[in-house]
Amino acid sequence: MLSRKTKYGLKALTFLAKREENEPVPISVIAESENISQKFLESILLSMRKAGYLGSKKGKGGGYYLLKEADEIKVAEVYRILEGPIAMVPCVSLNFYEKCDDCPDEATCSVHKLMIQVRDNTLKIFENTTIEDIIIRA
Amino acid sequence: MLSRKTKYGLKALTFLAKREENEPVPISVIAESENISQKFLESILLSMRKAGYLGSKKGKGGGYYLLKEADEIKVAEVYRILEGPIAMVPCVSLNFYEKCDDCPDEATCSVHKLMIQVRDNTLKIFENTTIEDIIIRA
DNA sequence: TTATACCCTATCGGATTAGTAGACTTTACA
DNA sequence: TGTAAAGTCTACTAATCCGATAGGGTATAA
Fold this sequence. Notes:
2 copies of one chain form a homodimer. Chain A is mainly alpha-helical. Chain A folds into 2 domains: 63 residues, Arc Repressor Mutant, subunit A; 68 residues, no CATH class. Helix content of chain A is 49%, strand content 6%. Chain A has a two-stranded antiparallel ribbon. The longest helix of chain A is centred in the last third of the chain and has 16 residues. Chain A is elongated, with a radius of gyration of 17 Å. Chains A and B meet through helix 1, helix 5 and helix 6 of A and helix 1, helix 5 and helix 6 of B. Chain A binds a DNA duplex through helix 3.
């Protein structure tokens, strides 16, 4: 399941990318347009800012704006920041590897290889899709 | 994330499929061999029985056994029974479709098409992988 | 008749998710 | 210089889900 957090994050990014000018947009505007709880969106945008994708400006006339071009922002990156690992099981995660604590041995685990396959496929999509692609296709 | 439920379910099925004879195997044996909480496994096997994949025999010498051949059990089916929808978002689920309650319009949703793509890819893997495949590859 | 093993219901603690509240800081502008 | 607009930060909450557990009930082989 995709969390709302990630979904909202992607929506907010595409919203910003679709604008003509890259001027600060208040959270309230994004929240209203995209039908997102404003307070929740605050924390999401903050994460994206700390990760270097968004800039912000305080005070009147302030808001959030993109720091990168839409075609430079991969879905995979956004997903990892907001959602976490792309793999369905920690023991096949590239960026968040962890041994499954219920599994004595990965080599003999019947699910392991299957999950690697799923990971590779999903990864291929997420790595090859940018915010720009999302805008074009939709 | 893949739940333990599904993971355990797949492990239990492969365990049964790997045996020479298709004779009833007590839950306790499967649980111990595969390192699974026995009580939890009970409910999982019960679900698989009700779905028609396993048969059971009560009393001494009883246990669970496969009702289908290993190459007739698709991962996709097991997944749907134990985990639920394969899609990451309800609005692109084939078997569990539901409108996303936060999304006013699917047609203009920026995430929708992306998630269809992910679903199709994952589905392809799960539909084309059987318990037998899992055994062979591992 | 007894031990074995599945069947069923209920419950529980912990984690996570989505959202809320409220105080604080920075800034534009009248 | 005061005020309203806007982001920042911390804390809290309600709801849900997950994995596991408890315990009694029922069927059956020996």
